[in-house]
Design goal:
Elements: H1 12-24, H2 35-44, H3 53-74, E1 83-89, E2 94-100, E3 107-113, E4 135-143, E5 151-154, H4 159-163, E6 177-179, E7 188-189, H5 192-203, E8 210-215, H6 232-248
Parallel strand pairs: 1-8, 6-7
Antiparallel strand pairs: 1-2, 2-3, 4-5, 4-8, 5-6
């Protein structure tokens, strides 16, 4: 089998090519901080086979169970839970993980700092604007081969985004993720250990039971917060987020440990 560098896997030419590639990525001696980027480069060079979700579960699944199962047991929820909801708050740079059974309320299971995100309050409107979307989204694809270690796709744009689009659908942007690492543009970076936990938890849950709510601020703590100027549909979306956060994810319950 030949590689893109013209030699078999593991050859000196391949090794040199990979080292050059790592340098080109600007990683250098800091490559250990970004294993996902190095793995992606190796995969492109056919030096490492792509991972599967099952392989990630084999390596990280037990850690995730130790992290989340106690909250499930305390609430009488079977492991693994039937539903998982992530709550992301831009200003607070915080991601909360809530779990639930097939019926009944969500309970807090964990919380993580958001290490990297771009933009500010307000929804994502177009590709390249650097904004993290706001609203309620499904979580569809699990990517075990992300350049940011692991990643979970946010189903942006949703129907509300399409309804109020200011550009053509093809220009609205895509590939919004919750991922590892500590830098991001338009996504939420929560670090490699955290994304391992979240990824493995979500891998146990059907797609229909996974979603994320992204808000500009934690409306439970600032229920009256509203921007000075924004489109009416955005203000309506904020009011809806605030009402549902207060009703379904009350602050008194948001005591999840980091």
């Amino acid at each position: 089998m030949r590689t893109i560098f013209g030699r078999r896997r593991g050859s000196p030419v391949l090794t040199v090519g990979l080292l050059v590639g790592v340098g080109a990525l600007g990683l250098g001696g800091a490559a250990w901080k970004y294993p996902g980027a190095v793995r992606s480069l190796l995969q492109r060079a056919r030096g490492v086979e792509p991972r599967t979700v099952e392989q990630v579960l084999d390596s990280c699944g037990q850690k995730a169970e130790l992290r989340f199962a106690p909250a499930c047991r305390a609430a009488g929820i079977d492991w693994p839970p039937a539903r998982v909801r992530l709550l992301a708050f831009k200003r607070e740079r915080r991601l909360e993980v809530w779990v639930a059974g097939p019926e009944g309320p969500f309970v807090p299971a964990a919380a993580y700092p958001v290490l990297g995100a771009s933009g500010g309050p307000g929804p994502k409107r177009r590709d390249g604007d650097g904004q993290v979307p706001e609203g309620m989204y499904g979580l569809s694809e699990l990517n075990p081969n992300s350049g940011f270690h692991l990643a979970v796709r946010v189903n942006y744009p949703n129907q509300e985004d399409f309804s109020h689009a200011v550009v053509a659908p093809a220009q609205m942007g895509s590939d919004v993720m919750v991922h590892g690492g500590d830098v991001s543009t338009g996504c939420l970076a929560i670090g490699d250990p955290a994304i391992e936990d979240v990824f493995c938890l979500l891998a146990h849950v059907p797609v229909s039971g996974r979603d994320i709510w992204i808000a500009p601020v934690d409306f439970r703590r600032e229920p009256g917060w509203m921007p000075g100027k924004e489109d009416p549909w955005v203000l309506a979306m904020y009011r809806r987020l605030a009402e549902r956060l207060g009703r379904e994810h009350a602050v008194k319950d948001a005591t999840a440990r980091r």
